[in-house]
Amino acid sequence: MEIEILEMGEMxxxxxxxxxxxxxxxxxxxxxxxxxxxMAIDKVEFHLGxxxxxxxxxxxxxxxxxxxxxxxxxxxxxPTDHQLFGxxxxxxxxxxxxxxCTIMYSLNKIGPCTVLSGDMMPLGNPDLAVKDxxxxxxxxxxxxxxxxxxxAVMGTARTHAKWQAAFGVxxxxxxxxxxxxxKAGDASTIKCAEMCPRGVFEVKSGxxxxxxxxxxxxxxxxxxTSKGAVLVGADDSNFYFKYETDGSLTAKQVLDKxxxxxxxQSEATFSHINEAI
Length: 277
Ligand code: SF4
Ligand SMILES: [Zn+2]
Hints:
By secondary structure, this protein is α+β, with helices and mostly antiparallel strands. The chain has two domains: 2-35 and 167-242, RNA polymerase, RBP11-like subunit (Gyrase A, domain 2); 38-158, Beta Complex (RNA Polymerase Alpha Subunit, Chain A, domain 2), CATH 2.170.120. The protein contains five helices and 14 strands. The chain has a four-stranded antiparallel β-sheet. Strands 3-10-6-8 form a four-stranded antiparallel β-sheet, covered by helices on one side. Helix 1 (22-34) packs across helix 5 (251-276). The structure holds iron/sulfur cluster and zinc ion. Residues 177, 196-198, 200, 216-222, 232 line the site of iron/sulfur cluster.
């Protein structure tokens, strides 16, 4: 098994999984979707009662229920560093919460204003400020205010979608597109360049050539248009993956972590089998 990186941006990635199997491709997809640990807000404390600021009294109310605000905060991507943080249940603090397993944020705003994700201030390390600063949380009118303390902890999407780091993880077999050289210059074959909805072909020196095979959706329209001069198949040992992240981890961190988890789980399975036989 081998991985060829095609694109690795901050929040977007694509790669080829080569010399593998559909079972392995599916395992990798499911691991990326559900098993990558990330930090997300899990506990929110709301200040109750009046808030004084600049000699003016504000009410601790918003147009939304506290539960909705807590849910919105939970879905805000929180920067995650696997070197700095671990699961609370495995932490040296015994699950009470400490700088090794929790990030604390405060949110202190008075109306009129729109409360945004960027208003969440990390207590301590400023590098832990949320990157996506403009996610609207609530609209405050004059006289309204919020004072919130929120705690982020590590989790996985097996528990809740707020701990899902990778999105739109999809793969397909790498397409195999063959153009019959003897018929590559025929009018019906050349027509495929115009007709293909995914821009797979180009015409060079009067002949149809494959330019972007990974764009192919395998609709097979070109096979009938070219009267059999073009044949489209799928390679079930090579897979083309595409995915995005929510910004809490980079695309590379998600892929690296997924491979690490699969390797660890495989080793554990083999050792169980070896113990049993
Ligand atoms: S199968 Fe469809 S998408 Fe693929 S090359 Fe043919 S026409 Fe284009
Ligand atoms: Zn701890």
